[in-house]
Write a structure and sequence with these properties.
Layout: H1 12-28, E1 36-39, E2 46-48, H2 52-57, H3 64-69, H4 74-89, E3 98-100, H5 102-109, E4 115-119, H6 123-132, E5 139-142, E6 161-165, H7 174-188, E7 193-200, H8 203-215, E8 221-227, E9 239-245, H9 251-266, E10 273-280
Parallel strand pairs: 1-4, 1-6, 4-5, 6-7
Antiparallel strand pairs: 2-3, 7-9, 8-9, 8-10
The structure holds S-adenosylmethionine.
S-adenosylmethionine (SAM) is lined by residues 1, 3, 5, 17, 41-43, 101-102, 119-122, 125, 145-147, 166-168.
Length: 286
């Protein structure tokens, strides 16, 4: 387990992933009934942007850094405001020192009745995450293989919620593991919303992944990809992808509003762009 998210926290992929995360959780808040978020690969929760790791890449500066400085129209501003409010709340003196990871972002959005289960396998990372939420009865941090949560931990007792799957993609076979995990999880919790992150590095692998998702027969699978450049000759993170199964009915339109602006702000070159489409819509069940 060599992957360290501290090098990448707040980069373009985090920005897109975390905006989608806030939109889904805000939708869950529309009903009083409690929900649970399960974050299977949670990370350390809070990242030091002035630390050695972030300083080596400065990726956050072309991610959240650009977004904070960007001028966007009112519709886009409304949709990204909850995310930016959380980022700003973590940096109360106005200087960007910390970036909130997914469990901390979710924590900002929990009401009293809602819960977060955060899994992290790396022992030191799990320890750091536990420290953040020590004594917090709404959050349970477990040092455990996140893939296991897609079995025994489902369905959550609230019977409503979001499963975020954000693996590091440092070992081969991660795309297959996501598809296999989704099939297993969907059998146990077919009404849940699943948000599955993936890197757009190897286009051939991504095409295989999308075909495999289609072949699961699971309905209501939305795909979004945001590219910051055209395809690189050498494998490189050219884009960020997210699959959302059972998305809130509002999400497609929200992303159609937000993605053109994000693509402009976060792009590294002219060939940037985005994709937003249904891998399977509600009606085309197999
Ligand atoms: N979701 C986090 C966020 O958005 O702030 C970032 C997570 S980072 C991309 C992936 C994390 O998964 C790393 O912290 C890594 O230690 C952890 N990890 C790797 N393999 C895991 C596993 N099998 N189960 C749980 N966590 C794992």
């Amino acid at each position: 387990m060599n992957y360290r998210h501290a090098y990448h926290a707040g980069n373009f992929a985090d920005v897109v992933k975390h905006i989608i995360l806030t939109r889904i959780v805000l939708y869950l808040q529309r009903k009083d009934q409690a929900f649970r978020v399960i974050d299977t690969h949670a990370g350390i929760g809070r990242y030091d942007l002035q630390g050695v790791e972030a300083g080596k890449t400065n990726e956050w500066q072309s991610g959240v850094g650009r977004l904070l400085d960007a001028k966007v129209d009112a519709k886009v501003a409304d949709l990204i405001q909850p995310y930016l409010d959380i980022v700003r709340a973590e940096n109360p003196d106005g200087e960007m020192r910390q970036y909130p990871g997914s469990p901390l972002i979710v924590r900002h959005l929990l009401r009293r009745q809602d819960r977060l289960s955060a899994l992290e396998l790396h022992p030191e990372d799990a320890e750091l995450l536990s420290e953040i939420f020590e004594g917090d009865i709404q959050v349970r941090v477990t040092k455990l293989d996140g893939w296991l949560a897609l079995g025994a931990h489902l369905p959550p007792k609230e019977k409503r919620g979001l499963i975020l799957v954000d693996p590091p993609f440092e070992v081969a076979g991660e795309f297959d593991r996501i598809v296999e995990g989704l099939v297993r999880a969907h059998k146990r919790f077919s009404g849940g919303t699943f948000a599955l992150w993936y890197p757009v590095k190897d286009r051939h692998e991504v095409r295989r992944f999308i075909a495999a998702l289609h072949d699961t027969g699971i309905p209501k699978i939305l795909r979004t990809e945001l590219m910051i450049r055209g395809a690189s000759a050498e494998p490189r993170l050219d884009g960020t992808g997210m699959i959302i199964v059972n998305p809130p009915f509002t999400l497609h339109d929200e992303l159609r509003t937000v993605l053109p602006a994000l693509s402009k702000i976060l792009s590294a070159e002219q060939k940037a762009g985005f994709t937003l489409d249904w891998i399977r819509a509600e009606q085309d069940r197999t």
